[in-house]
Amino acid sequence: MTEPSFLTTRHGTRLAYHRTQGAxxxxxxLGGFMSDMEGSKALALEAWAKAExxxxxxxxxQGHGQSDGAFAxxxxxxxxxxxxxxxxxxxxxxxxxxxxxxxxxxxxxxARARPGRVRGLVGVAAAPDFTPRMWAxxxxxxxxxxTEQGFVDVPTEYGDTPYxxxxxxxxxxxxERVMASPLHLDIPVRLIQGTADPDVPWAGTLEIAKAIRxxxxxITLVPEGDHRLSTDRDLKRLIRVTRELAxxxx
Length: 250
Known about the structure:
The protein is 37% helix and 26% strand. It is α/β, with parallel strands linked by helices. The chain has an 8-stranded mixed β-sheet, sandwiched between helices. A two-stranded antiparallel sheet has the order 7-8. A two-stranded parallel sheet has the order 9-11. It is globular.
């Protein structure tokens, strides 16, 4: 693992990142909830970008991976600001965003905020507006703990460290929703979704596609695909979809 560079944002977050210089349109990888930039999808895309001489950026949000700050202090809105700072400061020209899980939510926010810069979007098990669904999945005791003490620790199958879910996360997530109204995105959007994903139901991908107005949207359903979509076949598919979209923008 190579040492990252760091960006200190105007809103105070110190972000760890790896940037590859190259031709455009560049690729920006946006990771998932409590994930980091050392995951297989980010590294596979980076290796492909380097081989092609294409610009690429991966980074960690506050409280994720090698960036500063505590995960429990983060919210969707803060992580969107982190991503905007990375996009604005560390990339040039048109970009294709690749958002995994929560990164798909953040990618949609960035596409609306930077219509001139974001020229394409790839969602991998994209999970916009997942916090209301997460709240509904909690037990009454867990919801009571969040309401009364401000947080609850929830075990996860994706690692040994439990997720600390805070009241601020849920309140902010409600304000940051993108699916409550049509998404006007005049860009190509590619959505890759596993049919056996236990965290993001594949039918939700159809809802994302229906919400997008003005864009060129294509969905790839992966039979028996899980939430990670990180097998060798999955990674090759992700690279192929990203390459085809980026090449269409040249």
